[in-house]
């Protein structure tokens, strides 16, 4: 049986890399591998901005990808953590196995995911909006 608590916390701590999906569905899960490209591109954007400064336009496009990957991982943690124990056991438990109460582990993971996901989502929206309007001002100021 797969642990709902472990799956929730894997999504919170390493969900941007799809580790929770690998735990639940194995290495053949295509959704697990789809977490990697936007996360790595977002990290490349962070690296570019640290190296080249805030005027690097490519990093403006790449950094929100990291934010969206983190938000998707936190949403996954919330869905996993709030899955009823009966449904969890029927999906990830042994056939005929009785459902067991999971306790506070997944609940605390959901709380952490809500806090992190909300902060990252608001930061991504703010960053994307700021860079969009800066780009518009640059376009308006440049001579044609």
Explain what the structure shows:
- Helices cover 76% and strands 0% of the residues.
- The protein is mainly alpha-helical and 144 residues long.
- The chain has one domain.
- Helix 1 runs antiparallel to helix 5 and helix 5 packs antiparallel against helix 7.
- The relative contact order is 0.15.
Mean pLDDT across all residues, rounded? 91
Q: Structural class of the helices, strands and pairings?
A: mainly alpha
Shape: elongated
| Distance between the amino and carboxyl termini | 64 Å
Poorly predicted runs are none
Number of helices: 7
The main pleated sheet reads as: none
Cα radius of gyration in angstroms: 19 Å
Concise description?
By secondary structure, the protein is an all-alpha fold. 76% of the residues lie in helices and 0% in strands.
For this entry, give a set of tags:
144 residues, mainly alpha, elongated
Describe how the helices and strands are arranged.
Layout: H1 4-14, H2 19-25, H3 30-33, H4 36-52, H5 57-81, H6 85-92, H7 105-141
Helix pairs in contact: 1-2, 1-5, 1-7, 4-5, 5-7
